Amino acid sequence: MNLNELKELIKLLRDSDIEELELEKSGFRVRLKKKETYSYSPAKERDAIPVYHPAEAEESPVAAEEEKDGKKLVTITSPIVGTFYRAPSPDASPYAEVGDSVKKGQILCVVEAMKLMNEIESDVDGRIQEILAENAHPVEYGEPLFLIEPSIKEG
Amino acid sequence: MKGLLDLSDIRQKLNTKIIGKEIRLFEDIDSTNREAMVLGASGAKEGTVVLAESQTGGKGRLGRTWYSPKGENLYLSIILRPPVLLAEAQLITVVAAVSVAETIKKFTDIRPGVKWPNDILINRRKVAGILTELASGNDKVNYLVVGIGINLNMEISSAPEEIRGIAGSLKDFTGREIDRAGFLATNLSEFEYYYMIFKAGERQRIMDIYTGYSATLGNRIRVRSLEGSIEGIACGFNMEGGLLLKRDSGIIDTILAGDIEHIS
Question: Strand B228-237 vs strand B243-246: parallel, antiparallel, or unpaired?
């Protein structure tokens, strides 16, 4: 099975009502499950190791727009599986709080995987409406982290 | 007073194409990683190295500091711009671990162990630590900074009490002074070698060497997070460098984050 076939398979699963799919083909086996928790993903047995990561096959989820009370909100999502941190260290103050004005490119949080500290930046100028993930908890690929109300552009 | 690092000495010993072609040497700095992140943001070239004789706030994980006495060890940060997706970038921490382990083996004939993901150990004492920071945009790596601290010649007896029981230096184990410029040049060259393999997408080759150095594999370990802890036997790695943990129930979990502790 090549990467494209796998991508097709993931797409098929995503667009369907099927929750879980297991496929065996000439010594190759793949198991796909919707909304799998990858930081702690249970596999049934030794051979069923979840080596393939849907992250590589999905489209960029970093920013998505959402309507709320008639206002357009921008969702900042996690680009990787890891641990979500709101501050650079346990004693430091958070990068951003609800109600803070933020600039495009400003660091909002860090998501850590394997001692790689991934600084997540804001995609827009705006105000933080909501923080959706909990400090020091695991987050999934594509999981919403922040809701931001973009500033109204002048002119 | 021991000799300080000399850039022309390092350049003479260096035989890399990209890594370390530009080196910024500081006698005192707060953190090489912080400086490298600033340089990265202002467009520094791939392979640029920030090197310091001492750090007042060497960055560790979660605000911890890396003890960085002057003139004894190596503290460096490498700026990289790999054309990979974010989900693939974490393997760079494995690349860095392999490069340090190979360099130690070449310099001392001691085969170090790597505690997942990238602590370098000799006789269970930590001799090197790696912390990577990444700036991203649109699911791609904008730049990343691999920070490496290696305890070469420091006297463990003069280290702060909290690390005296867990840290070590290469000199402790070899009984001789390590040539810092030579070690640095070899380490940068090893790093470049494995970084090219990483860029070529040959993850298996990197993971094979990494697995050979693993001090975690086969051990009973505990993974802690705020959501609780799980225990099991470290039974392998996936191609992203994630740790496969086999629980007593037979379930295998893939661990990508969290603190691990060896309990056997």
Answer: antiparallel
Query: What domains lie within chain B, and their CATH numbers?
Result: 7-213 (3.30.930.10), 220-262 (2.30.30.100)
Q: What is the pTM of this model?
A: 0.83
Instruction: Please report the residues numbered 5 through 44 in chain B whose beta carbons come closer than 8 angstroms to any beta carbon of chain A.
Output: none
Helix and strand numbers, DSSP H then E, in chain A:
1, 11
Tokens 């605000």, located at residue: B63
Q: In chain A, what residues touch B260 (CB-CB under 8 Å)?
A: none
| Cα atoms in the 13 Å half-sphere on the side-chain side of A42 | 8
Say how many C-beta atoms besides its own lie within 10 A of residue B42's C-beta.
7
What are the tokens at A41? Answer: 């993903």
| CB contact (8 A) between residue B241 and residue A114 | yes
Q: What pLDDT digit, counting tens, does each position of B28-38 carry?
A: 999 999 999 99
Name the residue among B239, B253, B256 with its Cβ closest to that of A51. Answer: B239
What angle separates helix B203-213 from helix B180-199, to the nearest 10 degrees? Answer: 140
Q: What is the mean pLDDT of residues A17-26?
A: 70
- State ipTM: 0.91
What residues of chain B score a pLDDT lower than 50? 1
Measured at the alpha carbon of residue A24, what is the angle toward residues A18 and A27, in degrees to the nearest 5? 160
